[in-house]
# Entry
Amino acid sequence: MLAAAYEELDRDSFAALTLDRLARRSGVHVSTIRRRWRTVEGVVVELLAERGSTLPTPDTGDFRRDLTQLTQAIADFNNALRNRNVLQGLLAAAAHDPRVEEIVRAAFVRRIEEVTLIARQAVERGEIPEDTDPREVIAALAAPLYYRVLILRGSIDERLVHTTVEATYQAARSGVFVRKGDREG
Amino acid sequence: MLAAAYEELDRDSFAALTLDRLARRSGVHVSTIRRRWRTVEGVVVELLAERGSTLPTPDTGDFRRDLTQLTQAIADFNNALRNRNVLQGLLAAAAHDPRVEEIVRAAFVRRIEEVTLIARQAVERGEIPEDTDPREVIAALAAPLYYRVLILRGSIDERLVHTTVEATYQAARSGVFVRKGDREG
# Structure
């Protein structure tokens, strides 16, 4: 059923996804789908759990190259129509249900945490200042990409990958993300 | 009716907003509301048109101070519960309806365009390089704020205002947003 949903979202928008369409494509009866997932939003939330966290953490030994690979991976992921649709469906579901909001939030925090390795290694190699907050670096990298998808409703092109990597790299190098005596915040 | 909706969104989440609640608070009959706006999403889209575009464009004569004032204004706007709720409701509506998606997109593009004055004046004063793309500067400034609200589901604190201004300032100064022979793109 989840595979069927993912396929549907590769053909059409989240808006076009209905439980009836899912039933037709998956061969699962619509009442069964409704019992288990309640709504299309419920289906999309389970898709997040299943397919959301597959981005590898680059480890090239070079901070700028790591940033570039991570940005490209986020771009490729979100440029796939079905993933963009899942994301938009998730935020729609989050607006309607505080429990979903918490699931979405936790999923993104976890993904950021995973890839902070890039910034922590850059600190260890002396490429960026000590006391750099690694989560701020990753959030700075991710933000322009999600802004493009969610607010400007466009795809992430090469130019945006380039400016995002460079802006984050320059800012991190010049100590914008340094926290003095407050590493956790 | 719109004022009533705005008040409701200041007390509770978008998820809690129903046409019945709007009817009770506004004194307008629910069938009238349904006829005119169809859904709560429809109400929220009209709220965007009415109250969305009230941010003034700072003009202090100093690029960094302009960036700080604009960032603070976006922060204050989105930290008000009702505005955050309108935004989240809008994106939910956009996921469900391509026409709403286009309205939301156009509204943000228009707001970016308005405040590009900040970057264009900074170019004129020689604070940032010629051929800097002013829309990229503004998008870089706005992105971390919307990422915080929409993805991390948190409020925009002083620290984020500071890092966002500094990252954008450093990047713009160092020419990250310069487009050679392609000012429009």
Observations:
- The two ends of chain A are 41 Å apart (CA to CA).
